[in-house]
Structures are given as structure tokens and as C-alpha cells.
Amino acid sequence: MQMQDMILVSIDDHMIEPPDMYRHHVPAKWLGDVPRVVRNDAGVDEWVFQGQRTSTPFGMAATVGWPHDEWGFNPGAFSELRPGCFDVHERVRDMNVNGVLASMCFPTMAGFNARTFTEAMDKELSLVMLQAYNDWHIDEWCAAYPGRFIPLGIVPMWDIDLAVAEVKRIAKKGCRAITFLEAPHSQGWPSFLSGHWDPMLQAIVDEDMVLCLHIGGAWDIVKLAPEAPIDHMIVVPTQLTMLTAQDLLFGPTLRRFPTLRVALSEGGIGWIPFYLDRVDRHFKNQSWIHNDFGGRLPSEVFREHFLACYITDPSGLKLRDEIGIDVIAWECDYPHTDTTWPESPEYAWREFEAAGCTEDEVHKITWENATKFFRWDPFAHTPKERATVGALRALAGDVDTARMPRAEWRKRNEAAGIGVFS
After folding, report:
1. I need a surface site. Which of 5, 80, 352, 419 has the fewest CB within 10 A?
2. For the residues of 333-376, what is the DSSP string, one character each?
3. What is the pLDDT of residues 81-131, one digit of tens each?
4. Which pLDDT belongs to residue 57?
5. How many Å apart are CA 311 and CA 62, to the nearest integer?
6. Is residue 387 helix, strand or coil?
7. 231 CB-contact burial (10 Å; exposed 0-12 / middle 13-18 / buried 19+)
8. Is residue 88 part of a domain?
9. What is the four-CA torsion angle of 392, 326, 13, 96, rounded to 10 degrees?
């Protein structure tokens, strides 16, 4: 096997939603109330919904086209971005040049937990826009290139019955997963331990979907020093994934839902061997607690329910047998700062070689585990021989992957009318 023979399915990427996304998905009477983008006097594009303005977080969420010294949390404009961030046609070209067959794209404007709609005052209007958001994502973004995207939905957290209904609605449209807060209680919502979310989890199980818990939503679980440097915001989140796993594994959730599947999106894998050793030791040693895992070890139950997702993790790959080779999945994280684009195959291949991975193991990690977990056929629209890194890159000979300063992107894009929506 050679690098060009790999098949890459990324189950953690992101999209910067285009401002015209609602054009075809909202009844005429609501068109005046849709979230819209307004460029302020400082040249920054802001989303406005129900009178609330939020600067689009381009700084860390869409750095894929910029030189490293221009990264940061500072907001910007659509015209400063590599078009693949928000244009699905350019996204597929960027996937091709990176050798990536398929992608699962998490929200940006909406937030991993539909925060934009959850925090707005008029919940009737929020529900209309949330449903329109899902319709755009499934019927427009994903449907534009069948076989290249795995649909992912959001739910109205403010009403559990509405959340159940939305899970069932989008399941009928072919949606394969729901993105949700990894630790709801950290943001003032009931925890997974409470049972509050059980009706939604039952709906996810009934519809054979996956619960995706992306890093970044559990900050308030821990108390950082007020002097904590910005590094903490980038390094620490993957360590908090362990707390999410602990809530689900030792709480009642997995006992109540023995077929629930949970993807620990961007949570990394290096922490898992220690965690599994620890929980098994705890289970055997602390018998007085009377935990019941149905005659199995906690580590065995973990492997039945969780998919562990990583971008780069050389140490974790060396311990892949301790983790469980069938529960590891690769991801790209385009267009965030952690992405390996446009050299994802090179990064992944180096780590596979260093870890001594076999051909079968590489295929499991790069596509087989993920597509099995999400019940998604990677070759329904693309024959296997055309799905490889080499075959996809052969389609992208004209794709320029050079990084440019934001000002240069803005100059070029605006001259071409790209990224100018207001």
C-alpha cells in the first residue's frame, strides 16, 4: 500500500455558512427575519439575528488560506477567506486537492449546540430558522455533491419535545448525526446524568443516528487561573473529552440506551489508554460501589459505544491496540487552525508509518470505522477506485494551495465578486 492508495473520510470539518443560505429554505413571510450578514464600519462582517450582532469568528475558524502569522481571534470579512470555507463548489475542489473523499461539516454561525437560535428571544422564530438551517445543510450543502458529505443536524435545546421532533424530521431527510454540547451542564443546561435529554437520545437511537460531541463546549467544567494564557484554550479542550466520556460511561445513559453511538469529535485518542486502564482498575478495585456493566469491563462498554476521533496523534496511534483499532477515526478539521490541509495524506501517512500500522489498520482508521459507525456508504456515488487520495488529487491539478495574507485575499476576492454579500 502507498500513500496515494488511502481513502480519507473526515468526520470533523467545519463550514463558514454563506449569508445567502436561507434564500431557498424559509417561507416568504419569514424572509425579512432571517439571520443576515452586515459589514460594519470597520469592514467586519457580522451576523445579525433578532437584533443581536455577532462578529463571524473567522480568526480561528477559517485560517486555512492565511499565513500562520496572521492567525488569531480577530474577526474579518467573507472576502478575506479562502472560498472553500463557504462555497461548497470550492470546498469540494479543496477536498480533492487534499485527497479527501467525504466530510462531515460542523456549524460555525449556528454553534455546535445551535447557540445562535437557543439564545435568541423569539423561540418561534428561532425554530423556523433552525429548521431552515438544517434544510440548507442537508438539501443544499450536502446534496450539491452526493457522496461527498455526511449530513449533520442541530436541535432546539430549549424544548426537549421540539428536539425529539427535529431529530425525527431530519432523519427522514437522510441526516446521519446530531451535534450537541459535550457537557450541557457546563453551560447551565441539565446534564446527561439527569435524564433530561433521554427522550432526544431515544429518538437518536430509534433513527439509528449518531450523537456527535465536539470539543469546545465544556469550558466551565474547569476553573482556569485568571492569568491563563491563550494556549490553554487550544490545548486543554481535548483533555475535557475524558469528563464527557466519564459522565456517559458511569452514569445511567449507556445503560438506558445500550445501542447509543457517540462520536467524541476532535477529542483525540492519546488519553484513552490511560483512561481505560484507570476505569477498569477502579471497577475491579472499588467493588463496594456496586457498578454494573452487564458482566463486562468499563473499557469493553466504552468500545461498544464511542468513536474516538483525531487529527494527528502519533503517540495514540502507537497504542492503537490498547484503545481498540475498531473505534479510531481520522479527521481533517478544515478550515480551522488545527487542520492538516492541504497535506493531510502526508501527515497521516507519516504517523501510520511511524506507528507501524498495517494496510488493514490504515483502512479502518481512515474510512472503514467512520462509515460503519455512521451507517454511511462511501462508495454509493463514487466507485472505490476513484475514491483514493491519488484519484482525487488527479482531479485537482488546477487548485492553488498557496497561502496569502488576508488583505490579498480580500483584494482578489472582491475584484472577482467573491465573498461580497452585503
Report:
1. 5
2. -TTSTT--TT-HHHHHHHHHHHHT--HHHHHIIIIIHHHHHTT-
3. 999 999 999 999 999 999 999 999 999 999 888 999 999 999 999 999 999
4. 60
5. 16
6. coil
7. exposed
8. yes
9. 0
Whether residue 135 contacts residue 381, with contact meaning beta carbons closer than 8 Å, is answered with no
Residues paired with 210 in a beta bridge: 177, 261
pLDDT band at residue 55 under the 50/70/90 scheme: low
pTM over 0.85: yes
DSSP string covering 301-326: HHHHHEEEEES--HHHHHTHHHH-GG
Look up the domain containing 41 and give its range: 3-415
- Which grid cell sits at 30? 419569514
Cell triple for 330? 481520522
Task: Select from 262, 356, 346 the least CA-distant residue to 303.
Answer: 262
Binning the chain into helix, strand and coil, the percentages to the nearest 5 are 45, 10, 40
Q: Are 261 and 307 in contact (CB under 8 A)?
A: yes
Q: Which amino acid is at 317?
A: L
CATH number at residue 150: 3.20.20.140
CB atoms within 10 A of CB 197: 24
User: For residue 104, is it within any domain?
Assistant: yes
Which helix (H) or strand (E) is 89 found in, with range? helix 88-97
pLDDT of amino acid 422: 58
The arithmetic mean of pLDDT across residues 292-302, rounded, is 96
pLDDT band at 171 (very low <50, low <70, confident <90, very high): very high
Structural domain includes residue 420: no
Name the nearest CA neighbour of 330 among 358, 305, 361, 294.
361
Instruction: Indicate whether 23 belongs to any domain.
Output: yes
CA–CA distance, 27 with 35 (Å, rounded to integer)? 14
DSSP for 42-77, written as a single string: TS-EEEEETTEEEE--HHHHS-TTS-GGG-SS----
- Average pLDDT of the residues of the chain: 95
